[in-house]
Amino acid sequence: MRAEGIYPIVREGYRTAKDQQAILDERIQRYLDEGYLERGAVGAAKEWVAVPGTSEHQLGMAVDINADQSRSANDDVYAWLAENAYRYGFILRYPKGREQVTGTEYEPWHYRYVGMEAAKEIYQSQICLEEYMENH
Length: 136
Ligand SMILES: [Zn+2]
Known about the structure:
Blueprint: E1 8-12, H1 17-33, H2 38-48, H3 56-59, E2 62-67, H4 74-84, E3 90-92, H5 99-102, E4 110-113, H6 116-125, H7 129-134
Antiparallel strand pairs: 1-2, 2-4, 3-4
Helix pairs in contact: 1-2
Zinc ion (ZN) is lined by residues 12, 57, 62, 64, 110.
């Protein structure tokens, strides 16, 4: 990617359950501050933040990759990753148009390691991990 003049950074890698809870709590608080009632705030937060024990970051197999903003744009990083990450065994974990299958909003920065073989098939078939798992 750097050879093509695009500069990525890993914004998130491994996260503990405690880290994950803190992120969820912070998001819930933000909704409460906006005037949501407790149940609504928790529900809204969970649409965006994984509950501890369910985040791929806690598994240690996922990374969030963004641009080094002083040198590149996020969209350039995301475009490069979408075309090339499979060569290194990584897949776009939550693709656009698969929200109903993955249960998660489109996240162009979130990549998961699945190994070279699975990554290549998932990329070439343009499917998501859930669909791949159904066939294997
Ligand atoms: Zn992520």
